[in-house]
């Protein structure tokens, strides 16, 4: 069960985990504060406060941190990592067990620029992007590398929290959906099979779940 602690929190998440919807629902139920329209300060498209991520912490803002954030902001991520032992924040690790579903959702959004329901109705210059058969091998390689990087970062953060005996909770995508208590889908699932299918990717992702350190830590 997801625990409410009523104090500032950091949500450690990765793509296609309903992280923004979960963030704001948790924010609401715990009566926390967030800087207006800046719940994800370590997004290269957002603008940090003058004092960087440490200013968010000093102001007790809650925020979301994508573990596979842009390397442009790696310095800020390092500063946050160093500050963790000294700050009184709740930490939530949000992950998604079904990596194959996550990859198809992520790829559709990435290549078609669809990140919310409203994007489906925007005028388009072309039809939906679909992968050619010859593109699949490189897609599989990229997906495995991307998922591995995400899991590696989760492990890094969990080890830091354990080292300093800092409480945290691990939340799976489906539990987050129940907590949000509303439909978070974007209506894109109907396009996935046509976009691409790969038994090789399914098998590789299953092997990753079996062998990666993260799954022995949760």
Could you characterize what this model shows?
The protein has one domain: 3-Layer(aba) Sandwich (Rossmann fold). The chain is 43% helix and 9% strand. The chain is built from 8 helices and 4 strands; from the N terminus they run βααβαβααβααα. The chain has helices at residues 19-29, 53-58, 74-83, 99-112, 136-163, 173-180, 192-195, 199-211; strands spanning 9-13, 63-66, 90-95, 168-172. The longest helix is centred in the last third of the chain and has 28 residues, at 136-163. The radius of gyration is 18 Å and the shape is globular.
Summarize it.
This protein has about 220 residues and is an alpha/beta fold.
Regions with pLDDT < 50 over 5+ consecutive residues?
none
> Could you give the distance between the termini?
14 Å
CATH topology: Rossmann fold
* Main beta-sheet annotation: 4 strands, parallel
Report the CATH architecture.
3-Layer(aba) Sandwich
Structural domain tally: 1
Please tally the β strands and state the result: 4
Q: Indicate the CATH class.
A: Alpha Beta
Helix content: 40-55%
Strand content: 5-15%
Our Rg estimate from Cα atoms comes to 18 Å
Average residue pLDDT: 89
Q: How would you write the strand order of the largest sheet? A: 2-1-3-4
Order of helices and strands: EHHEHEHHEHHH
What is the global morphology?
A: globular
What structural class is derived from the secondary structure elements? Answer: alpha/beta
What's the number of helices? 8
């Amino acid at each position: 069960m997801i625990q409410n602690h009523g104090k500032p929190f950091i949500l450690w998440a990765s793509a296609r985990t309903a992280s923004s919807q979960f963030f704001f629902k948790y924010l609401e139920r715990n009566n926390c504060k967030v800087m207006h329209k800046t719940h994800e300060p370590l997004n290269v498209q957002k603008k940090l406060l003058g004092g960087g991520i440490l200013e968010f912490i000093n102001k007790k803002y809650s925020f979301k941190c994508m573990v596979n954030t842009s390397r442009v902001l790696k310095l800020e991520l390092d500063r946050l990592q160093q500050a963790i032992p000294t700050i009184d924040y709740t930490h939530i690790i949000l992950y998604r067990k079904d990596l194959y579903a996550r990859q198809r959702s992520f790829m559709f959004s990435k290549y078609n620029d669809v990140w919310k329901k409203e994007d489906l109705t925007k005028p388009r210059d072309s039809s939906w992007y679909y992968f050619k058969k010859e593109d699949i091998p490189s897609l599989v390689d990229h997906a495995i590398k991307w998922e591995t990087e995400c899991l590696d970062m989760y492990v890094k953060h969990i080890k830091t929290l354990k080292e300093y005996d800092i409480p945290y909770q691990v939340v799976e995508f489906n539990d987050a959906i129940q907590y949000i208590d509303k439909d978070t889908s974007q209506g894109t699932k109907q396009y996935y099979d046509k976009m691409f299918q790969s038994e090789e990717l399914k098998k590789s992702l299953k092997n990753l779940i079996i062998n990666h350190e993260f799954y022995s830590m949760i």
